[in-house]
Inverse folding.
């Protein structure tokens, strides 16, 4: 789901919530809003993960050789009244790997135009970004069903 569709869905959810009687308890209202935002994030997470894997696989000489592990979707905490976009964190390997690597490398995917991949030349800065985006306390892991594989195709 792209950011525009995500924003439209979020606006629709918040607009519908405005039609209800206002909650007497501000804490209950904040909890209901946070729950709505979490449901929207959970609905968008599988598409974001799939987009990350397709985009990163395309960086390989042989995209079909891409292997992923430790892939998680992270929802950063609220920034005031704004919910930052989710990120996908994980490791990608393939033949040959990104930058010719023979071992899987870490990645951070924000959208199709903002992808960070760990390489020898950027290891220190990448580590800082990883800690802020994917590390302990950087946000909430969004539960995403396992990605479909070619073997899961019922038509085969």
């Amino acid at each position: 789901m792209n950011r525009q569709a995500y924003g439209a869905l979020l606006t629709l959810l918040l607009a519908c919530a405005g039609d209800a009687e206002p909650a007497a308890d501000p804490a209950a209202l904040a909890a209901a809003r946070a729950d709505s935002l979490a449901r929207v994030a959970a609905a968008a997470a599988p598409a974001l993960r799939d987009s990350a894997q397709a985009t990163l696989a395309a960086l390989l000489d042989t995209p079909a050789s891409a292997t992923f592990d430790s892939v998680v979707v992270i929802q950063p905490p609220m920034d005031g009244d704004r919910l930052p976009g989710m990120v996908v964190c994980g490791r990608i390997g393939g033949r040959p790997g990104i930058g010719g690597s023979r071992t899987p490398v870490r990645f951070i995917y924000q959208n199709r135009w903002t992808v960070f991949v760990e390489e020898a030349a950027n290891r220190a800065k990448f580590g800082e970004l990883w800690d802020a985006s994917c590390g302990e306390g950087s946000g909430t892991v969004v539960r995403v069903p396992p990605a479909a594989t070619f073997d899961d195709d019922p038509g085969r």
About this structure: Residues 26 and 32 are 10 Å apart (CA to CA). Residues 3-146 form one domain. Residues 150-156 have pLDDT under 50 and may be disordered.
